[in-house]
Amino acid sequence: MEANQLVILAGLGIGLVYGAVGLLSGFCLMSSMRGYLVEGDGRLVRTYALAIAVAIAASQYLAGSGAVDMGKSIYLQQTFSAPVLFLGGLLFGYGMVLSNGCGSRALVLLGRGNLRSFVVVIVLAISAQMTLKGLIAPARIALVQASQTTVNTNSLPSLLAALGPGEAISRALAAAAIVLALTLFAFAHPAFRRSPGQVMAGIIVGLLVAGGWFVTGYLGADDFNPVPVTSLTFIAPIADAVQYAMLSTGLSLNFGIATVAGVCAGSLATALATGRFHLEGYSSPRHMLRSAGGAALMGIGGVMAFGCSIGQGLTGLSTLAMGSFIAVAGILIGTVAGLRGALRVQPLATA
Fold this sequence. Notes:
70% of the residues lie in helices and 1% in strands. By secondary structure, the chain is mainly α. The protein has one domain.
């Protein structure tokens, strides 16, 4: 079997597992933040924190052992635009609140029969393609060119290494400090410790991120036809998947498209097996408009930020890239703005 075919099959498998786990656990950054800030339930945010910790630990082990060269990914670039990454994160985070979930959550809910998520996925895909290659692309490129900088230290390990310790020690210190802090934060919560399903969800999702790196960076490392080194992310892959469904002739399957298909299929199979499948729709035109508007912001912002709450919040952070921390800060601030304060998104009475 060729490397590219193996990567596609593995991507499908990773998506299947993510779809099942996402449906059973409710794994979603927006739901986590809403539970933590609004509803007083901190379990989901601890699940997310544990997933980040596991993703960093496993991914940095792969990088440190030489199995995967994460320097080939989009996250560890020497030249990037911090303002555009941050602004994209803000737009994505606020759009996530408007749509009541991120792109990956929309795929999971779509598999369960949520027709609102179908609208979110389609609008997100269109707006992402417009920002990548369409009408909005020139403005995005101009913003990036006007604000980008080139740095010598593009990750926390490289920053520590510049201060004296060697590369291996710097990688271990940076990863250990963040993993320890996130793990303590997660397990300090008694309700989380009493929720084995949430604990397992965090561990599995974190391992899926590392699995994506291994699949694309190790199994896909063909000298003659290498695949892009990446892992779980959903903005560009959703856009590519919709385009592939429409215009498959002349286009090629890739890891991201296979993952998107796997998430929907995994959620659908799990929903049917557990009796959770049921059709849902919008309660009002206003509800639909707000949801579609949020999806558009997620598509635009996700492209600007080089990823979503998964693509940057898990996969990007697993590389310890400086740009990923900037993008995630924007996502978190945008989400908080939508949940609290003057820009709070008001609940719909008919929703």
